[in-house]
Amino acid sequence: IRTAMMTSLGGRTLPFFEQLATDADFRTQPHAASWFIELARSLGSEANAAFGLSALKVVVTSDLTLATRSAILSAIGEGLKRRGSSIAKLLVESKADDATKTLVTNFFQASVATAVNADKPTGDRIAAVRILSLSDFATASESLAGLLLPQIDPQLQIASANSLGQLDGADVPKLLLAGWRSHSPAVRREVVDALLRAGTRVGSLLDAVQSGTVQRGDIERDKKDLLVNHPNSETRDRAKKLLAADIDANRAKVIADYQPVLGMTGDAARGKMVFQQKCSVCHQVAGIGHAVGQN
Questions:
Q1: CB neighbours (10 Å) of residue 51?
Q2: pTM to 2 decimals?
Q3: CB-count exposure of residue 277 (10 Å: 0-12, 13-18, 19+)
Q4: What single DSSP character describes residue 276?
Q5: 3-state DSSP assignment of residue 285
Q6: Tens digit of each residue's pLDDT (9 = 90 or more) over 221-265
């Protein structure tokens, strides 16, 4: 039904979006967020920048929940990306006035304040962090980097690594890798993903491997495969020199090497201790650990 309605809107997408955003009854419906996201993505991808700007104004001025505003802003960002644009470019393309630019700046600054406020609910902090992925490096980088510390909630660390990786700044790789030794496996995975997303940052990851900051064993097998099969020949050759020795192509041999473990007698007490030491950072069983990864 939603798809049919979306295609029938024609040039009425913006007024429909604005009407729904102010409809108190609609906003409480469980399907409201998905509607907002579809409409916002469509408006962001419009060649006429005025549509995207109007959707952005709704985000920064409405009293929708922070999580909903975060989701809408991400959808606008996706739409803008489809046509090679961004929030910063949108403000220029649409010739936004100073008042609108101030609203957007204040919105991002308020998101920084929420993200770093330990007294705020974790859900609101994560929503604010996701909003900051569409901000600029100068506004968000320092705060996001500060949320990668091990004492921060694991889910907030992961969201911060993801958002920091989406910012446009030459120092992003440096900030992502600065606390590598103290990063949990889940955060390390997010950092590696962030560096692999941008071709210009892959070299920073390989530099870290070469210097010993990142150990070869710290990078998961599938990420190593991506590196040694990278489409850029220079990157591919360098990755093979650094990582090839750590990749055993004979998977059957690896499985056979571990096969004897299946015949061992289990020790639940020792297993619990190992789980607490090695796994509980990202996984939770019987109330022990953190429910970040799948169990």
A1: 22
A2: 0.77
A3: exposed
A4: I
A5: strand
A6: 889 989 998 999 999 999 999 987 665 555 556 677 778 888 888
